[in-house]
Amino acid sequence: MTKEAPTHSVSVAGVVIDTDGRVLVMQRRDNGHWEAPGGILDLGETLEQGVQREVTEETGVQVTVDRLTGVYKNMTQGIVALVYRCSVTGGHPMPSIEAKSVRWVDQDEIDRLMTPAYATRVHDAFRATAASRTHDGVNLIEPS
């Protein structure tokens, strides 16, 4: 009996922070959840190119990738997400095929809008060091 290798997908996301400290968030069309923009990394692109593409496609905002702020694994779906802090270089927030709504919010609104697993990604972007966390798609799973 041959054992198959585990399958994971890699996603990237950008926590875009403007000069006033506000965060760019999007409400997904497929499930209505508020998240930082991001998605599955394409095979032929670098991590940074993937972040820039995803943010622009989903929100209309162009960014520079500043630094890695966290690595997150969704244990139920096998998705590993690399999240980066980003700065705005152009564009204007607007809805897209994937985003029903896009807007700037203050950091204190994040916990009200997002599930804990996704709110943590935003809060981690304001920390000095990168985080490594696991979650079940909604809530964080504490290390054992």
Q: What's the CATH architecture? A: Alpha-Beta Complex
**Could you give the order of strands across the largest sheet?**
4-1-6-5-8-9
Question: Which percent band covers the strand fraction?
Answer: 35-45%
- Major sheet: size, sense and barrel closure? 6 strands, mixed
In N-to-C order, the SSE pattern is EEEEHEEEHHEE
CATH topology label: Nucleoside Triphosphate Pyrophosphohydrolase
Number of strands: 9
Helix content: 10-25%
Secondary-structure-derived class:
alpha+beta
Number of domains: 1
Q: Could you list the spans in which at least 5 consecutive residues all have pLDDT below 50?
A: none
Relevant terms:
single chain, 144 residues, alpha+beta, Nucleoside Triphosphate Pyrophosphohydrolase, six-stranded mixed β-sheet, 3 helices
Descriptive report:
- There is one protein chain.
- This protein is of the alpha+beta class and 144 residues long.
- It has one domain: Nucleoside Triphosphate Pyrophosphohydrolase (Alpha-Beta Complex).
- Helices cover 18% and strands 42% of the residues.
- It has three helices and nine strands; from the N terminus they run E-E-E-E-H-E-E-E-H-H-E-E.
- It has a six-stranded mixed beta sheet with strand order 4-1-6-5-8-9.
- It is globular and about 50 Å long.
